[in-house]
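Tutorial, part two.
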Amino acid sequence: MKDFIKDIVYILRPQQWVKNFLVLAPPFFGGVLFTSHEMFIKMLLAFIAFSLAASTAYIINDIVDIASDRLHPKKKKRPIAEGRIGIPTAAAIAAVTIILSAWSSLVVGKVFILIVAIYMALSLSYSFYLRNLVIVDVFTIAIGFVLRIEAGGIASGIEVSNWLLLTTFLLSLLLAFGKRRYELVMLRKNPQPFREVLGQYRENFLDTTLGIFATTAIVTYSIYTVEIESKLFLITVPFACYGVLRYMYLVQTDTSGDPTESFLKDPPLFVCVLLWFLITAGVIYL
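Running the prediction step on this input gives:
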């Protein structure tokens, strides 16, 4: 029973839920996230709704990829690929997570549940088709992050700055192209079954995209900090620059490419993000 629960937790990918903290960004930057108990609970439900929707997408993706995952040296050990969780059971878990996600979304608001539905449709389109289209695959991922930000704005009633949306989109492209570069390099070092779209990418192209989106993301974030009334917010720009450069360093030294793993396992990047958060919170709320 203990191992079964562990497998369920695995297929839900809770470590990937860190991405859904973007839902909290609009009320956080708007200075209202911690101003009332009602707002905090509402945004917590919004976070849970997106996290459960994402978990549903991960489970469906594992079911769709079961054949290819069984040929992969690492992915073959996943619970669904290894048969520790059968497809009917996985489908039932996915049904539960999407129902809970829909319920949480409905509590937050009718427009919010529409955004979550669009996100789910985008995720399923990615799993079944879009992930095989070069460049389009990365843009699909980036749009998913923008939807998280917009959903947070709708849930909190905060109008999201266009500069924040643009920064999110560009930074998401940087992270996604960085992951593609890392996967491509690892594939060259250790040939193995891989996603079809990787064969269409080239390392020099990906290096170019990293430079483009790192630069533009820093510029748009800097403009966003200028847009905010407090000049103290400019203090966060060096931390943003370091975070972007640190991620590029990890990718181009073949250390790590997955954004979530980089954040959780690389101490300098983790400390940088933590300091950025604490300083930003201090400027906004104090």
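Residues 161-286 form one domain. In part three we will examine how such features are distributed along the chain.
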